[in-house]
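In this section we walk through a basic example: taking a raw amino acid sequence and producing a predicted 3D structure, encoded as discrete structure tokens. The instruction is simple. Fold the sequence below.
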Amino acid sequence: MLDQFSRTTLLLGKERMQKLYQSRVAVFGIGGVGGYCAEALARSGVGRLSLFDDDRICLTNINRQIIASRSTIGRYKVEVMRERILDINPGAGVEARKMFYTRENADFVNLSAYDYVVDAVDTMTAKLELAVRAEEGGVPIISSMGAANKLDPTAFEVADIYETSVCPLARVMRRELRRRGVEKLKVVYSKEAPLTPIEDESNSCALNCVCPPDVQRKCDQRRQVPASNAFVPPVAGLILAGEVVKDLSAGAKGGEGRP
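The resulting token sequence is shown next.
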């Protein structure tokens, strides 16, 4: 019988699709990168998804975030993403966690309960904590490096963190992970050198913040608000999802091609 995953089944085969359906994936960060990743995982047939983000949708998210529109401004990102996923696959299990992942609350999340962890957050401390905890728990993880301040969506690559170059975020991650004894981390990163945002008083988020009133981390509290667009972060998110699907479905019988 045909269903919403029939075209994917033609590529992967029934056994791989069943493996995806039985998998549980955690996506940390439901923004320009993580939102597209979460939706692609849902559209690929991943059966259980846990979404972690405490942010609300802002007017300035509309240029790049799949969940952002005029009608969703002010709503929690994880709640809107959960609704989208259930509209795609009503049979999916979707957990919406309004949570900003930190070292202080990391004990409240059992990463070992997941078959895969996706790091699409934009803070260094959270990325490091996720990488360390995932390694300690023996859980596969993939991490997105910098996608802001870039214009070339074709410059992304998948590599181990210690094989990366150019990306400033990856450089700091390499140093800090080495200090913590983490010997490997699968990442999606870009070799495009980041651009300097063209900011003035008229378009400065720091001076004209339009975040919903009860948001905890407003633009005017940030050291620098990054520039972004509609086509670079989504590509990073889709690459993340593709790697997760490939890794989760590995070993099951199915199509010959790489998913």
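Looking at the output, two observations stand out. The longest helix spans residues 232-249. The chain has one domain: 16-249. In the next section we compare this with other chains.
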